[in-house]
Amino acid sequence: MHRNQIITILREHGFADGRLIAHSKTGYCKRYPKHFVVFNAQILWRRGRILKQVDLDLTLDADKLTAAARTAGENFYVLYENRPHLGCQRKLTAMIPVLRDAVWWTRIRREDQDVFLPVEIAQGRSTRVQLACSTGWWQGQPAYAVDVWLNPKWHNMHMSGAVIELCGHPPRHLRTLKRAKGREEFVQQPSSTRGRAVRPVFRQKSGLLQFVWFSHGATVPTVLYDNSVGLLDDLTFRCHAGCQAIHVRRDGKFIGLIWPSRIYAPDVVTNAHKQLNARGRSRKQS
Fold first, then answer.
1. Spatial separation of the C-alpha atoms in residues 250 and 254, rounded to whole Å
2. What is the dihedral of CA 124, 127, 132, 138, to 10 degrees?
3. In the predicted model, is pLDDT for residue 181 greater than 70?
4. Are 163 and 259 a contacting pair, CB within 8 Å?
5. For a designed S-S bond to 35, which of 59, 83, 114, 127 qualifies (C-beta 3.0 to 4.6 A apart)?
6. Phi and psi at residue 163, in whole multiples of 5°?
7. pLDDT tens digit sequence for 125-140
């Protein structure tokens, strides 16, 4: 379907470029504090941007936008006004990092729905990605960190804050960035409190997003997990009060930290929490 035809369909469903839902953004948010509102949103499809400035209250508009997508036969992706870097408008391959920034999207086909898989799924060599990592010293021993911001192909707003820091030498398939000799890279000290045990529960695939969720509701991108922590055996994990990072231990010895990511797409978080709650109830019943 041509872009102009899709624009016509969106207009018929109440969405046009420049659409306003309120003259006062602050006032609207105060009146509807629990609504998911995106002011000056962009609506994209797989070939590029359709609308560049449209107010959306997705608590009210989601069903209508999905109906428009079904009529057009194309999924729509909603992004904030300052995302992404719209240098890529044409090719699908160029759109992939762009669509990872979507804060909401339609799910008009069965394969678009969230998929939840066990963490224990074996990871073959074909799934490994040659990410860049930084190296340094941590508590007197070599260490390395895998950070999405070191990998422009992968970093996006849903992965912001995600870093995995581990003692030891990086796996061979990771590309080591050159650093100045003697530079101290890792200074965060492990928490001295007892903490509580947590565990990776499942993998979530939601559109172009893929995450590993822990039992206490923290998550890390699958691409980071599988290329670092996921390569190690006999690990235990703990969370500590006042510390966002998940502590990683092996044979009772501290070996690293997992800094979780923040996910901006509320549907992804809601669906994951439902899975966590359901699995938590089943464990208690058993």
1. 7
2. -40
3. no
4. yes
5. 59
6. -145, 140
7. 446 788 999 998 888 8
